[in-house]
Amino acid sequence: MPWPPPSPRIRELIRRGAEIALTPSPDWLAELDAATLSGEARRQIAADPVLAAGTRRTNRSNLLFWAASNVRAPGEPVPANDTEAPLAVARDIVRRGLDESALDAYRVGESVAARWWTQIACTLTDDPEELRALLDVSLRSIAAFVDDTVGAISARMRVERDELTRGTHAERRETVALLLEGAPITPQRAEARLGYPLRPEHTAAIVWTEAPDADPGQLDRAADALAEAAGGLRPLSVIAGAATRWLWVHGRPDADRARAALDPLPDVRVALGSTAPGVDGFRRSHLDALTTQQVLTRLTSPSRLAFHHEVELVALLTTDPERADRFVARTLGALQTAPPELAETLRVFLEEQCNATRAAARLFTHRNTLLRRLARADRLLPRPLAQHPVEVGAALRVLQWRGHP
């Protein structure tokens, strides 16, 4: 053992503490997730819903792995956690083009876990010597466990990186990366390597799932369905991770057909970019699709499909989530927490350029019912709608994509 074997009494205290750690409180887990997904070094992980979800799963996996090991064999070294959760994250990190610096999240998680464990330890004994011995062994164990786990994941990342540099998929991904980075590759050369024409109009999409046990085939079926909704021409698909596909289709997918195609694929989500021609359109549409995905993630939106033009304003408004929250609360007042049909009625009324007849038809309701709801909504606003309709409309759009009508 890399530390002196603990006494039977200390072993028993570690076992009791580990049993407590096996059932972490929601507040502890929320703090762990927030810490491992914050900071500039982890910005790219936090902005990617698949990587963020994988990090949260890995946090729980590491915590339970260490605790369970110390219930079985308290105070003994814990082997590296090479289970599926951390290895899946390693694969996705490599496929996003990130390096081992992304594993800094594990070090942040270690510091949070060590603080929790210290709090648990202080509830197990009042004897200062017992507490000292307990913390000496267990904190060494936590540090060694994290070191070994990071080492195992780094090794997996090296293997994954080697695999990605071989074969036709590697060539396709490399070509896409060159196009997205604006590197000097001719359209003709890129088209030959991709088997995908770049001159026509195309729409990029991010197709992903956050469900840990989802069938990867659902992502491929969703990609095919988007191509069908855009006219049926062959799409360009790149595996960006075990749970993510980057997609380009010619034309713009029909929204109703695309949403219908997602109905039998409940674990799949889709973010679409703008529609534009040529290499510049290829690049811009992908960046817009990433923005759309980030909006859905930032607002924890339940929407499973969104186009960039639907959320572009919301993306600008919610770059700073705290300021966006204040703007919505200040603008909508009591309407924010009123029955959802009031906000929906007012939003549709504004979208229909304040035409009550068109708004009532769109909502499948009687015009008089719509007018009563509008009057009630106006009374709930801090200022009358007529004084600031643009601000109210913008706040309602944010509310809509947060999962409210």
Automatic annotation (TrEMBL):
Residues 189-295 form the CdaR GGDEF-like domain. Coiled coil: none annotated. It comes from the Bacteria. InterPro entries: CdaR-like_regulators, CdaR_GGDEF, PucR_C-HTH_dom, PucR_C-HTH_sf. Pfam families: GGDEF_2, HTH_30. Signal peptide: none annotated. Residues 342-397 form the PucR C-terminal helix-turn-helix domain. Gene3D superfamilies: PucR C-terminal helix-turn-helix domain. PANTHER family: CARBOHYDRATE DIACID REGULATOR, DNA-BINDING TRANSCRIPTIONAL ACTIVATOR ADER. Belongs to the CdaR family. This is PucR family transcriptional regulator. It comes from Streptomyces omiyaensis.
